[in-house]
Amino acid sequence: MDGSGLAQALGEWESVLGPTHVVREPGALRVAGTATFATQSRVQAILRPADREQVQACVRVANRARVSIYPFSTGKNWGYGSRVPVEDGVLLDLGRLNRIVEFDEELAYVTLEPGVTQQQLFDFLRERQSRLWMDATGASPDASIIGNTMERGFGHTPMGDHCGNACAFEVVLPDGGCVIFGRSDATLNRGGVRMGTSEFYRVVEQLPEVADSLVVDTGQLGTDGRLILYLVLTGDLTLDHDLTGRIKAALRAALSPRHVPDEIYQVPGIPRTLSGKKLEVPVRKILLGTPVADAADPDALANPEVLAWFSR
Predict the structure, then answer these.
(1) Angle separating helix axes 52-65 and 3-17, nearest 10 degrees
(2) According to DSSP H, which parts of 218-311 are helical?
(3) What CATH number is given for 187-311 in this structure?
(4) Is the pLDDT of residue 163 over 90?
(5) Which residues are CB-contacts of 77 (< 8 A; sequence separation ≥ 6)?
(6) Domain 3-93 has CATH 3.30.43.10
(7) Distances (CA, A) of 98 to 24, 116, 144, 222
(8) Does the predicted model carry a pTM greater than 0.70?
(9) What are phi and psi of 282, to 5 degrees?
């Protein structure tokens, strides 16, 4: 890598992130290059993206300019590694991606960004008086949970194999693309026929009148429930008998008669997490009697005001 490539990349990164989040101050770079062991590689700059899209943009710039980048979460995963790059290069600091995106007390899972620390998740659970136990590692409270998991850090409970119990990763590739692993949709079980909701949405949302949708099956173990479809329509359209009939016919033909909704409603919006995931499970909880305030954490939602509609 020559100096011209780095200079070109720094200019592009400042356009993407803003000058404040492209750190070039010598003192800050010197501190970032210090670890609990002797190091020789040099930190040339520190990039501080705020979301996945900015991470992807940073990676694309590095690829074009042929500049080495070294990602880290908080750089405090002592005993496993540090934030010092293995060779001269630019640090990609993921610490600003520190949102707890989704939490489910009943299913006992949490969706995190890489900057979320052990202390942050511990405080989050305590504030909500959760019954769940955060399986901590021996690293610093300020260590990233995702960073420690990726380096095969371990906990001290039957769920201590953190890497083995993690799923649904969003992985940014060297060319700036992104691969999302694991299903994030819910499952419909209609008369013994199991199907992911993504197949359902694929049929419904191909209709030009439908801008967004959400489907919920209220059935519980051993009992059938109602299959309810909620729609956001394009423009000023209103749900009518004709559109209802076409939706049911499309689902019957593409899926099965069992997957024709029992009820269809037009709604002002579909509740989503900050990462864009539809809130199928929380809406189902509300329909089964859970108060809105207990069904989902409003701080983890992109549009929390919409959720109250489903309690009507």
Answers:
(1) 160
(2) 241-254, 280-287, 292-295
(3) 3.30.300.30
(4) no
(5) 139, 140, 143, 144, 147, 148, 151, 153
(6) yes
(7) 23, 5, 9, 40
(8) no
(9) -60, -40
